[in-house]
Amino acid sequence: MREYAPLTHAPLAQGARVAQPAAPGRVTLDDPAFSVMTDLREVHAATIIPEESIDEANARMVRRGVRLLFVLERQGAVTGVITATDLLGEKPMRFMRDRGVTHAEIQVADIMTPASMIETLALVDVAQMRVGHVVATLKAVRRQHLMVSEDAGRSIRGLFSASQVARQLGVQLQTFAVAQTFAEIEAALGR
How many other C-beta atoms can be found within 10 angstroms of the C-beta atom of residue 10? Predict the structure, then answer.
């Protein structure tokens, strides 16, 4: 059996701090799409189960600093997603009215987007894309998030978030959401 020498070690310096992850860097529309993708092999996905309350879903989003939770069944398969828009929009009010329940009684399963309605981009295609393609796709599908899958859709590998893309492009979120053409996005980038 091979022997290993111990590493050099020293006491922790007084006032030492825990390292923080670097903020995602600035990008342009011509940068690789991977530069704005959240890689779920590097970042733990924020998740919840369908039976949790929407209040717990909101609290979990706030704690994690995210606007989307993957909804997982007990065995770990994705059964849907729930977004901040789902929680803070009209879906809960409509569900309360239609079902005659209180806000506290609404479960994640009641207002989530089911997995059958989630479309994904193939990881192999994303490898050929630029940030501009991500922006155009987000606009075309009128969504705040895009999933990236591998293994013929059997595994969600990554996520594109409109707010993350806007932040990395250096545009205001409302400008990014309202922009209708690449010219408008490029004008916002020029500010």
Answer: 5
The verdict on pTM exceeding 0.85 is: no
Structural domain spans, the chain: 33-190
- What's the rounded Cα separation, in Å, for the pair 169 and 161? 12
**Answer CATH for 33-190 from 3.40.50.720, 1.10.10.10, 3.10.580.10, 2.170.190.11:** 3.10.580.10
Q: What does each of the 191 residues of the chain score in pLDDT, given as a tens digit? A: 899 888 887 888 888 888 776 667 889 999 999 999 999 999 999 999 999 999 999 999 999 999 999 999 999 999 999 999 999 999 999 999 999 999 999 999 999 999 999 889 999 999 999 999 999 999 888 888 999 999 887 899 999 999 999 999 988 755 455 555 556 666 666 65
